């Protein structure tokens, strides 16, 4: 994955997910905390540095808080200094869905779980090599499944 791949997905469409999970807003609200629901289902964000997973160093897989799909591996997590967990690539190319985001007077690429459409955060082209990507993800949208 690189920035050109991200832009291609955001403009031309995403890879097919491995499966689909769909629930009503009422069903999601019963399964998630208030913050998790606001972030994942209403495209919110958490305050920089407030997320429990920012400083997590345990080995494991970062899964979607909504559907449990594996999204990122702990081996590709890095300290970006932004205040949100940051990753260089998804665990699989079809784990993440990309969408152009023009909210707040900016043009960004939103990243979502490709299985349940849960808002995760955004991806930027300022990460470390070899991908050059920085997936900037809300802690509240993830769960760390330790090895």
Q: Helix and strand layout, with pairings?
A:
Layout: H1 3-12, H2 25-31, H3 34-40, E1 60-64, E2 70-73, E3 77-78, E4 86-87, E5 96-101, E6 108-113, E7 119-124, E8 134-137, E9 142-146
DSSP helical segment count: 3
Overall mean confidence score, pLDDT: 94
Overall form? globular
**What is the highest CATH level, the class?**
Mainly Beta
Q: Would you identify the CATH architecture?
A: Beta Complex
CATH topology: Metal Binding Protein, Guanine Nucleotide Exchange Factor, Chain A
Plain-language structure description:
By secondary structure, the protein is of the alpha+beta class. It has a single domain, classed as Peptide methionine sulfoxide reductase (Metal Binding Protein, Guanine Nucleotide Exchange Factor, Chain A, Beta Complex), CATH 2.170.150. Helices cover 16% and strands 27% of the residues. It has three helices and nine strands. It has helices at residues 3-12, 25-31, 34-40; strands spanning 60-64, 70-73, 77-78, 86-87, 96-101, 108-113, 119-124, 134-137, 142-146. The strands form two sheets. Strands 3-4-8-7-6-5 form a six-stranded antiparallel beta sheet, with helices on one face. It has a three-stranded antiparallel beta sheet with strand order 2-1-9, with no helix packed on it. Strand 1 and strand 2 (70-73) form a beta hairpin. The longest helix has 10 residues, at 3-12. It is globular and about 40 Å long. The model has no long low-confidence stretch (mean pLDDT 94).
